[in-house]
Amino acid sequence: MAKTKTYWAHGGKYKKLAEKLQERIPAEGSVPEPGKNPNLERLRIAVNCYYDLFNNGLCNRAREFRKVFGFAGTWIAKEGFPYHAPLEQKMDEFILAAAKEQGITE
Question: Tens digits of per-residue pLDDT, 36-62?
């Protein structure tokens, strides 16, 4: 998978939905009423892990990443990273679930 088709490179499949959802995610802390917005909260956590993967090589969130995504991502993210496709698919799932929960469409 080309790196340009990743959310990191601003080319994810549901980029527009992700941008709309990001407006509902605070800069710090949980989303408002996480019990009523569990998919938005999951997306927030996934985005934080995703960011840490590409920005810090998972120096801060390696354990959390594995829990959220279901596979280890301790490799430094670079072209040829073996989990690009499953990683982006999981991000798609988180985005679609949060969008449905929040009543957001493209």
Answer: 999 999 999 999 999 998 888 888 999
C-alpha closest to that of 42 among 52, 30, 54: 30
Closest CA to 28 of 48, 43, 53, 10: 48
Instruction: Dig out the tokens for 41 from the structure.
Output: 């909260």
Check residue 23 and give its pLDDT. Answer: 96
CB 88 within 8 A of CB 13: yes
d(CA 90, CA 14): 12
Full DSSP string of 29-57: SPPSSTTT-HHHHHHHHHHHHHHHHHHHT
Closest by alpha carbon to 77, among 41, 101, 53, 103? 53
Please check whether residue 37 is in contact with residue 31, taking contact to mean a CB–CB distance below 8 angstroms: yes
